[in-house]
């Protein structure tokens, strides 16, 4: 166990809806990164938060947004859901922005 | 665009065999290469490599990086059924905070 917890573990939404995924980082970690993993693919970087500020973003549209709170927990919000957003969303925390990542168990999102 | 390629995509071996997994990369401003094991959901950290030619070992697993030829290998000796998983290779680049992952190698160890 990495100490990184995510919720919910599974959820089903319909196209056009909005979703919020949550992540609690490992104690002492000030950096949280979010990844999207489609079936049979490696994780794709969405964005990273370091000390409550966005610290890098991958090739995802603006409808993917995030927050980091003073306790370093984080949220990923996705608006106007599309079928292709169906994936496993992984949160990872680290001691620093380019340190080893400790992943949570993920939130599996299905968009119908 | 940064690229990480893993091979083979999948393989099946018998318990006790030794396997070598490959990872090559084409990136700008390489910083480090990481290996992860993914059994069900959460990838678990195996190794971080930053220097060429220095082998890192953990039990039956070992890994080495070649920054001149732009690749890394992950070796698993005396494989066990518990080694069955997807092994992911990823690279940190430049000032970016993102890890670029390969698609992974699916290893199945049979009795």
Secondary-structure-based class of chain A equals mainly beta
Order of helices and strands of chain A: EEEEEEEEEEE
The outline of chain B comes out as globular
Count all strands of chain B and give the number.
11
Secondary-structure element pattern of chain B, one letter each? EEEEEEEEEEE
The helix content of chain B is under 10%
Q: Mean pLDDT of chain A, rounded to whole units?
A: 93
What is the global morphology of chain A? globular
* Approximate strand percentage of chain A: over 45%
Distance between the termini of chain A: 31 Å
Please describe what this structure looks like.
The complex is a heterodimer of chains A (112) and B (111). In chain A, the strands form two sheets. In chain A, strands 2, 4, 5, 6, 9, 10 and 11 form a seven-stranded mixed sheet that branches. A four-stranded antiparallel sheet of chain A has the order 1-3-8-7, with no helix packed on it. Chain A is mainly β and 112 residues long. In chain A, 0% of the residues lie in helices and 51% in strands. Chain A has strands spanning 5-7, 10-13, 19-24, 31-37, 44-50, 53-57, 64-68, 74-78, 87-94, 102-103, 107-111. The mean pLDDT of chain A is 93. By secondary structure, chain B is mainly beta. Chain B has strands at residues 3-7, 10-14, 19-26, 30-38, 44-49, 56-58, 61-66, 71-76, 85-93, 99-101, 105-110. In chain B, the strands form two sheets. In chain B, strands 2, 4, 5, 9, 10 and 11 form a six-stranded mixed sheet that branches. In chain B, a hairpin with a 4-residue loop joins strand 7 (61-66) and strand 8. The radius of gyration of chain B is 14 Å and the shape is globular. The termini of chain B are far apart. The mean pLDDT of chain B is 93. The chains are: A mainly beta (112), B mainly beta (111). The A-B interface holds A 2, 4, 31, 33, 35, 40-45, 48, 50, 55-56, 58, 88, 90, 97-98, 100-106, 108 and B 4, 31-32, 34, 36, 40-45, 48, 88, 90, 92, 96-104.
